[in-house]
């Protein structure tokens, strides 16, 4: 595992635990010499995790669409900052650059990226691990919704079983490192 793409909020959220866990994940990535691939922003959880990786001697590649430059300041301290035309190109580029994915709390963009990644795995477009850092049970309602979709026959339980879920950044990174694709 050389690189992990992290999806998370460009806001910090209402709970201090979100920021704390984002920074702990950044430390874990740097400690394990895993490069962070992310959306390039210096705002919110995105800025916190990227700055923590850099602070701890790690490498960070940001991928930011030109349209977001109007709303989100990029982190200019990054190892590498890649500018792309749009969100679709961003997702594709981040996927190409990483060996796995982790989602932290976030908003609509985080959910959209996460669901694309899960869908791509089910379609066998990639065989990379997908982790959820379930800080303060943030993803519990989402997991309940996915379980309901399974019960109602819209998705099979392989979509759920393929997710690596933990509330511990250390444990989640270890699970990602030890992941064996089926």
From TrEMBL:
Its EC number is 3.2.2.n1. Keywords: Cytokinin biosynthesis, Hydrolase. InterPro entries: LOG (IPR005269), LOG_fam (IPR031100). The keyword Hydrolase applies. It comes from the Bacteria. PANTHER family: LOG FAMILY PROTEIN YJL055W. Belongs to the LOG family. This is Cytokinin riboside 5'-monophosphate phosphoribohydrolase. It comes from Clostridium aromativorans.
């Amino acid at each position: 595992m050389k690189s992990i793409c992290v999806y998370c909020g460009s806001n910090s959220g209402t709970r201090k635990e979100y920021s704390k866990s984002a920074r702990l994940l950044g430390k874990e990535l740097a400690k394990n010499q895993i490069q962070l691939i992310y959306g390039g922003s210096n705002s919110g959880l995105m800025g916190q995790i990227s700055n923590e990786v850099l602070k701890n001697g790690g490498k960070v590649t940001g991928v930011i669409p030109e349209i977001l430059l109007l709303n989100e300041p990029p982190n200019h301290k990054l190892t590498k900052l890649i500018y792309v035309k749009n969100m679709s190109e961003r997702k594709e580029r981040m996927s190409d650059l990483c060996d796995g994915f982790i989602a932290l709390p976030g908003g609509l963009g985080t959910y959209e990226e996460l669901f694309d990644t899960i869908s791509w795995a089910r379609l066998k477009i990639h065989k990379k691990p997908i982790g959820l850092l379930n800080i303060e049970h943030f993803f519990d309602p989402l997991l309940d919704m996915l379980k309901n979709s399974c019960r109602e026959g819209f998705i099979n339980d392989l979509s759920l079983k393929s997710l690596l879920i933990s509330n511990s950044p250390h444990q989640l990174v270890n699970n990602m490192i030890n992941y064996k694709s089926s």
